[in-house]
Amino acid sequence: MSMGNAVDLLLARQNPDGGFGFRAGQSSWLEPTAWAALSLHGRAEAQRALAWIEPQQLPSGAWPAHPQAQRESWATSLVVLLKCLRGEFDSRWKRAVDWLAAGEARRIPDPSWLQRLLQKEDTVVQDRSLRGWPWTPGAAGWIEPTVHAVRALELSRARYTGGALQERIETGVRMILDRQCKDGGWNYGNKRVLGQDLDSYPECTALALIGLSGRKGPQVERGLARAAEDWKRGPRGLAHALLRIAFRMHGVPFDDRPVEVNARTDTAVLAFALIGGPEGAWRLWKGGPA
Amino acid sequence: MAALEGRTGMNRRQWMACGLAAAGTACSRPALKPWKRKEPVFVLRADSYGKELASEIRRAVEAAGIAVRGKNVVLKPNLVEFSRATAINTHPVFVAAVMEALLSLGAAQVRIGEGPGHRRDTWTLAEEAGYFEAIPRFEDLFIDLNRDDVERAGELGEWGPLWAPKTLLAADLIVSLPKLKTHHWAGATLSMKNLFGTVPGSLYGWPKNVLHQYGIDPSIVKLAETYAAKTVAIVDGIVGMEGDGPIRGRPKQAGVIVAGANLPAVDATCCRLMGIDPARVRSLEMTQHLGPIGEPWIEQRGERPETLRQDFELIPMWSYLRAPKA
């Protein structure tokens, strides 16, 4: 299916309030609305999407995932990203960055002396000092919310005056690198559990590489090699759409093919299919010129 | 033991610790609480996902006393991973057979809903897992519970409201269709643990870590309390999973289907089939206000669990769950 059709499918999903659901006919949610706005950057529909998002900001500076659930969510990073791309470094942006910079995932408790005595390795192997960002405030840190927070703070760094973001960004990057699976890719965030190396997932590998955009080094190279292997297997849906973005952000040549989309395709996947096109908004997400 | 050490990463010290834990637990087995009546649970021998499966499931539903006529039903399978080559997911043929059976028994509508815990791309997951192929009109019938609109359905303590998919709250009947599996964090994953897939990832993420922070066993209890009044279970135990489940374990040919309208009674029966003492499974012990787990209060219909018992391999940290042989 052509990118034109993906645009048509996406535009047909915009609700009268300006937001997007995960599927056609659903109430507006923050995540699909944000991805749609990024993919439609520069169009009036993106402006309408932003107009739906903006007033929902909570007193804490964060945004809820859905207007009904008035609680801070990971998707605040996506709003910060959008505001950076639009050059809107206003008080809403500042409060959101403050919230993101102050937020940190829960530290998983260290093993007790008894566990250390009895176990030859931790139940979950990871550097517990690298907490990253959680899906919901107060929970443990995971790859995807950390990736989005890192990208949002990277794009905010030059204009933010509320404190040093670099340390938070670098901690997030180190957390992503720490969670790399033995096979070179990433999953949701556990590389080794109960003595077993866990497999990576292509969509998470792509996301981690998006978070590591602009970075070099042997771990990034291993990640890209894993992504190339995943690409050869013909990934579909979300993995397909995100891998294209990751390759483009890292300047890696690949045998591009359009993402198959249809009426049931998740709105985020539709948006990623557009963002990852040769002229898509991946450059903006990476932090480069439009 | 050496082979199991290799597979689980547990060493001799851990085996010793587990032995001590087992000894300690054996001395402090939680009490079985009486229940107000006997709850029927039907156990059917079923060796394959063959052509007779729908009629066998129909027989199980009828024998278990599950009423479906005129009801809007949502099936909740355990759909976790892309691969169809292993025993991670509820078999798609099993789901199709349940659908056929319930429609033949007069259900007004049967849909399917799931919200996988780790994989974001639910539709591609369902396709790769064989659901499109096995289930007629799957794409018209499926609801991604991770992305459904939501309503408040309870509280999760400091973690705030428990949000639930509107589709489930509007259904007349939810049918939990778990796979018969061991679980490395919960001991066993059955009809109540399967309700984790009702929690919307759109709000709680992938994984739904809030449930782990709230506590796996308390979360199982909370979800069971939320849905038990209109939820029944039909368990795919034809091929289950043992060892390091729910994903990295080994397929286990158990050859059973278990059906019932009371979730703790069904799960307790499944435990007995797996050679697990249900009283030692913390979440089951904690849900005795919702149903019985003790044999005196479960009316076993069909096959006797003890005759079909096959001891599922348990990782060392759960070895104390093993039920003594009769």
Would you mind describing this structure in some detail?
The complex is a heterodimer of chains A (290) and B (326). Chain A is mainly alpha-helical and 290 residues long. Chain A contains 13 helices and four strands. Chain A starts with a helix and ends with a helix. The mean pLDDT of chain A is 94. Chain B has 326 residues and is an alpha/beta fold. In chain B, the strands form two sheets. In chain B, strands 1, 2, 3, 4, 7, 8, 9, 10, 11 and 12 form a ten-stranded mixed β-sheet that branches. The longest helix of chain B has 16 residues. Chain B is globular, with a radius of gyration of 18 Å. At the A-B interface, helix 11 of A face helix 2, helix 5, helix 9 and helix 10 of B.
CATH class of chain B: Alpha Beta
Helix content of chain A: 40-55%
Using the CA coordinates, give the radius of gyration of chain A. Answer: 19 Å
Order of helices and strands of chain A: HHHEEHHHHHEEHHHHH
Gross morphology of chain A is globular
How many independent structural domains of chain B? 1
Largest sheet of chain B: 10 strands, mixed
What does the largest sheet of chain A look like? 2 strands, antiparallel
What's the CATH topology name of chain B? Rossmann fold
Mean pLDDT of chain A: 94
The count of strands of chain A amounts to 4
Hey, which two chains have the biggest interface?
A-B, 46 and 40 residues
Alpha-beta content class of chain A: mainly alpha
| Span between termini of chain A | 25 Å
Q: Order of strands side by side in the largest beta sheet of chain A?
A: 1-2
Question: Which consecutive residue ranges of chain B, at least 5 long each, have pLDDT under 50?
Answer: 1-11
Shape estimate of chain B: globular
